[in-house]
């Protein structure tokens, strides 16, 4: 399907359309305004799974859009910031985007490569053509339209498209004006790098887990993984599988659940139980089963929060870690669990219990954050503190502002948001078209 040919056909209903503007079309195919700004219908920022899902849903509803992405590829998080052993944590049926199931040949937990192939196919199937290397640096509502400014991103030759993250530098700027702005820049837009006392004096290698690809090349080294979320646990497992001397810092309490219990996905089991039982009862059942499968995790240095895993998710959005083998490596002593870090030293780390150990490499599996507060000049819908919508599960703000993929429910949440947003924009688009014809 050629989206631009299709777009032309819809100009008759386009509230932004005028023949004079159309005479000045940019290379994007969209008309330009008096001051050179590109005039689009809906504007989506971010070509990750959420941005692609919104684009596909708008295509299915015949609403034209422009999709801006700072990198030179789709799903840059999955392509450039993930380790090679990564698989979807949840069964595939909970991770598919609207209107297109995963191929039947895919396993229950598709690999990173399979997920990327699926997204490329999604792009092709819906004729989605993102505008790449357009980093949104500001967006503001002027009373009628969203005015969005981008920087053109230049990529160092030979890096983009490979396995490395693109080097981002910027040259020219562009401006877009749109009735509807869909923020799909992700919950994980930027890595979080904690300030730990003395980290600058450490002579070894320090990296964020988003730079880690595999344990190859670390043999013979002492590696410390800081953090025990899904990334920290899996990076530790991967290092240990490559016979690397691995330690993992566990500072806080965390719920670790087996990915499967008696061959059944723990996630699927929880959803099923939640249909019939209270969240507290479901938590009691899950923790009992988990203890049978994994044992008492507190005994090997991973204490549990006082609130159960599902209730904790509901109350503060904290996702339980799904174990894919790390706990057994901890039990066998292949992965050592250490408490919080007091400070770094030249060749190692002092822990809060007074222990001092040497390390060659430190991997900060310390999570990610939203980048929305850096560029969106709006703070009634999005919080300026964490860059998430202020109310949980909220996808619609004022003046045509939307959030796709910020519900802390992974790809399942992405699909729901995309469908809701596209329905809402379609409704407004019809209403505006109708008003326009009425006033003619
Ligand atoms: C290691 C890891 C494993 C995960 N595994 C799972 C899993 O198994 N199942 C699951 O459901 N979820 C998983 N997640 C969560 C995952 O992030 C989401 O499910 C999914 O990637 C969300 O898609 P998204 O489009 O909202 O965000 P992203 O995938 O982060 O995409 C956002 C896009 O926006 C672009 N962007 C950001 N800022 C700008 C800007 N200013 N201008 C232009 N473009 C911009 C980015 O380059 C990116 O391409 C995982 C996350 C990580 C980090």
From TrEMBL:
InterPro entries: Auxin_biosynth/cation_transpt, FAD/NAD-bd_sf, Flavin_mOase-like. Keywords: FAD, Flavoprotein, Monooxygenase, NADP, Oxidoreductase. It catalyses: indole-3-pyruvate + NADPH + O2 + H(+) = (indol-3-yl)acetate + CO2 + NADP(+) + H2O. The keyword Transport does not apply. Its EC number is 1.-.-.-. It comes from the Eukaryota. Its cofactor is FAD. GO terms for biological process: auxin biosynthetic process. It holds the Pfam family FMO-like. The keyword Glycoprotein does not apply. PANTHER family: FLAVIN-BINDING MONOOXYGENASE-LIKE PROTEIN (AFU_ORTHOLOGUE AFUA_4G09220), INDOLE-3-PYRUVATE MONOOXYGENASE YUCCA4. This is Flavin-containing monooxygenase. It comes from Urochloa decumbens.
């Amino acid at each position: 399907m050629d989206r631009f040919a299709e777009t032309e056909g819809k100009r008759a209903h386009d509230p932004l359309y005028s023949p004079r503007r159309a005479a000045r079309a940019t290379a994007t195919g969209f008309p330009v305004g008096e001051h050179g700004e590109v005039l689009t219908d809906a504007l989506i920022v971010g070509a990750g799974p959420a941005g692609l899902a919104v684009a596909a849903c708008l295509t299915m509803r015949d609403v034209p859009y422009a999709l801006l992405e700072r990198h030179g590829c789709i799903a840059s998080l999955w392509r450039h910031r993930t380790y090679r052993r990564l698989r979807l944590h949840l069964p595939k049926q909970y991770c598919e985007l609207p209107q297109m199931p995963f191929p039947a040949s895919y396993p229950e937990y598709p690999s990173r490569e399979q997920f990327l192939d699926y997204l490329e196919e999604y792009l092709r199937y819906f004729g989605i053509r993102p505008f790449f290397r357009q980093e949104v640096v500001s967006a503001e509502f002027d009373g009628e339209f969203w005015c969005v400014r981008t920087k053109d991103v230049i990529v160092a030759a030979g890096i983009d498209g490979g396995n490395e993250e693109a080097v981002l530098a910027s040259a020219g700027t562009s401006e877009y004006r749109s009735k509807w702005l869909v923020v799909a820049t992700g919950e994980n837009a930027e890595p979080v790098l904690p300030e730990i006392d003395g980290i600058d004096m450490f002579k070894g290698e320090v990296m964020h887990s988003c730079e880690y690809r595999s344990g190859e090349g670390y043999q013979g080294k002492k590696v410390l993984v800081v953090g025990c979320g899904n990334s920290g646990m899996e990076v530790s497992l991967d290092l240990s599988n490559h016979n690397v001397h691995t330690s993992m810092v566990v500072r806080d309490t965390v719920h670790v659940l087996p990915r499967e219990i008696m061959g059944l996905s723990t996630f699927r089991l929880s959803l099923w139980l939640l249909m019939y039982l209270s969240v507290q009862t479901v938590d009691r059942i899950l923790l009992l089963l988990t203890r049978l499968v994994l044992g008492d995790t507190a005994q090997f240095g991973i204490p549990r929060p006082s609130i159960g895993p599902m209730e904790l998710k509901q109350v503060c959005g904290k996702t339980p870690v799904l174990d894919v083998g790390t706990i057994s490596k901890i039990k066998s002593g292949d992965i050592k669990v250490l408490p919080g870090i007091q400070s770094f030293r030249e060749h190692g780390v002092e822990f809060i219990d007074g222990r001092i150990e040497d390390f060659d490499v430190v991997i900060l599996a310390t999570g990610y954050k939203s980048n929305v507060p850096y560029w969106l000049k709006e703070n009634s819908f999005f919080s300026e503190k964490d860059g998430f919508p202020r109310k949980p599960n909220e996808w619609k703000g004022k003046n045509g502002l939307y959030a796709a993929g910020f519900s802390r429910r992974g790809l399942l949440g992405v699909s729901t948001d995309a469908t809701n947003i596209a329905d809402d924009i379609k409704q407004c688009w019809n209403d505006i078209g109708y008003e326009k014809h009425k006033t003619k």
